[in-house]
Design brief:
The chain is built from four helices and six strands. With 116 residues, the chain is of the alpha+beta class. The radius of gyration is 22 Å and the shape is rod-shaped.
Length: 116
């Protein structure tokens, strides 16, 4: 007997309860995976902290020469234009730029190639 046939054999409230529990567990698992995979960006006057995929990277604002979004990636360059990091980022560029600028961290609209 398969799992779906078993649901029809169980007394009245149990199929609904079982389906709700399985759905809640699946939702929790998906949410946990999505949270683990997505990038979180914390900006302060001193640091930019990137957290994602179980890792945390911290960059001092004074070592960042330019930060910008390109092709749904957050890119941080040092003062010499060298790549500090390039991370997939689902956050809105306007929200990121606001956070960077509000805390005095460098932000540019678009890549250096397009803004130079």
């Amino acid at each position: 007997m398969g799992p779906t046939k078993l649901l029809f054999v169980l007394p009245s409230p149990w199929p609904t309860v079982l389906a709700a529990v399985v759905g809640a567990l699946a939702g929790f698992l998906l949410g946990t995976i999505a949270s683990h995979e997505s990038l979180s960006v914390t900006v302060s006057a001193e640091y930019v902290v990137l957290t994602g995929k179980g890792e945390q990277r911290k960059f001092a604002c004074n070592e960042i020469g330019r930060a910008f979004m390109e092709d749904k990636q957050l890119i941080l360059l040092d003062r010499n234009g060298q790549n500090l990091t390039r991370q997939d980022c689902g956050l809105k560029p306007r929200r990121l730029s606001s956070a960077f600028l509000r805390h005095g961290c460098p932000w540019s609209e678009g890549s250096p190639d397009r803004t130079a």
